[in-house]
Write a structure and sequence with these properties.
- By secondary structure, this protein is an alpha+beta fold.
- The protein has three domains: 28-42 and 304-379, conserved putative lor/sdh protein from methanococcus maripaludis s2 fold (Beta Barrel); 47-56 and 220-303, Efflux pump adaptor protein, beta barrel domain (Elongation Factor Tu (Ef-tu), domain 3), CATH 2.40.30; 90-179.
- Helix content is 30%, strand content 38%.
- It contains five helices and 19 strands.
- The strands form three sheets. A six-stranded antiparallel beta barrel has the order 2-9-12-11-10-13. Strands 6-5-3-8 form a four-stranded antiparallel beta sheet, with no helix packed on it. Strands 18-1-19 form a three-stranded mixed beta sheet.
- Helix 2 runs antiparallel to helix 3 (139-178).
- The two termini are 48 Å apart.
């Protein structure tokens, strides 16, 4: 047999096998992903992420300016209510208190001197009054003695007011002096320390950056504060339960309850959706937890003890608004109209339309979106 004829026969044979394989493959149906329906407990959940925050946190600021001369705590230390946290240089304030104290004493001496002057003026006025009554002096001399007496009384009143004013200034100086020692307002832990020994502090104001010396947090009660979009926030109620995971603590799960729901929405910078802040109170606090840790929360909105559910991507909506899915029956995709209930990120509850023992088609999406009732299908292995 000629060599060229042999080559032609081989090429035709290979081509035929390729065509036959393609036809056979097409006839056996499109490759699709499939999963069995599942039955059991099912939860309608909302997933959100956020940060750990202490339920109670106090920013420690100073009411006086000065240099830190004592800083007996460091970040991470546990402190008790009333414990000294910071001591600020008090030399100038001590001098001011001494000056104001001297001012009070001088004012009190003025009062004493004026009381003597008033007594003298009063006796002179009484003497002149008797003489005037007996017509021994002129009215002018009597009125002059009366004016002197009234003036002395008014001056005494003025000096007494000066004493009150000086004592008030002294009290203010003493209060400022006492504030050079800053004490902890509660039991807690130093979670942030912004200053070092020898640094200057300024009078604390929330609007002035750098005025916070440190933060004391009550770590016995911690919340995970998450952001939830306005649609999901409307479904959340106080005391709903949540399962939490923290990035730093691996796969460990913690339980919590919704303790606070923000009453006004806001739009974070760079995002086009409004969100609400939701606080989830942890039922149990782990010593490894620290403020600012990232966490994920799965909030349970509703829960059923037993129901039927399938992967959420298996359910589609027709042009008339009905929901349906495809099940595998004898190598074909059979369209089933269904009613749905609860859902979460992965699955959706089927309340009507399935018996609970079917195999549903879940993808790929490019095939599922064009799949028709009766199309041949076969199982595709997932990569």
């Amino acid at each position: 047999m000629p060599k060229k004829l042999i080559i032609a026969i081989v090429v035709i044979g290979i081509a035929g096998m390729i065509i036959l394989g393609a036809v056979t493959k097409r006839d056996s149906g499109q490759q699709v992903f499939m999963e069995k329906t599942k039955s059991g407990p099912f939860r309608d959940t909302i997933n959100a992420s956020g940060l750990l925050i202490p339920r109670k946190k106090v920013s420690i600021m100073s009411d006086v300016m000065g240099k830190i001369v004592e800083l007996p705590v460091k970040e991470g230390d546990k402190v008790k209510k009333g414990q000294i946290l910071v001591r600020i240089d008090d030399r100038d304030l001590k001098s001011e208190v001494q000056r104001q104290d001297a001012g009070v004493r001088m004012a009190e001496i003025q009062v004493e001197n004026q009381q003597v002057s008033l007594g003298t003026a009063k006796r002179e006025f009484n003497r002149k009054k008797r003489l005037f009554d007996n017509q021994l002096i002129s009215r002018e001399m009597f009125e002059q003695a009366h004016a002197t007496f009234q003036g002395a009384a008014l001056m005494l009143k003025q000096y007494k007011e000066s004493v009150i004013q000086s004592m008030a200034i002294l009290q203010k100086s003493r209060e400022l002096l006492s504030k050079t020692v800053v004490r902890s307002p509660m039991d807690g832990k130093i979670t942030t320390l912004n200053k070092e020994l020898g640094e200057q502090v300024i009078q604390g104001t929330v609007n002035i950056p750098g005025s916070v010396i440190m933060e004391v947090s009550d770590m016995s009660a911690i919340d995970l504060q998450v952001e939830v979009n306005e649609i999901e926030a409307a479904r959340i109620r106080k005391d709903m339960t949540a399962t939490l995971k923290l990035d730093a603590l691996g796969e460990r799960e913690f339980k919590g309850t919704i303790s606070e729901i923000g009453q006004s929405a806001y739009r974070p910078q760079g995002r086009d959706v409004s969100v609400f802040k939701i606080k989830i109170a942890l039922m149990k606090v782990d010593p490894a937890m620290k403020p600012g840790m990232n966490g994920e929360a799965e909030i349970t909105v509703k829960e059923k003890k037993h129901t039927t559910f399938i992967p959420i991507q298996a359910v589609r909506t027709s042009d008339d608004g009905n929901k349906f899915c495809f099940v595998m029956e004898n190598g074909k995709a059979v369209k089933k109209t269904v009613k749905t209930g609860l859902s979460n990120d992965a699955n959706i509850e089927i309340t009507k339309g399935l018996k609970g023992n079917e195999t549903v088609i879940t993808g790929p999406y490019r095939i599922l979106k064009n799949l028709k009732d009766g199309d041949k299908v076969r199982k595709k292995k997932k990569d």
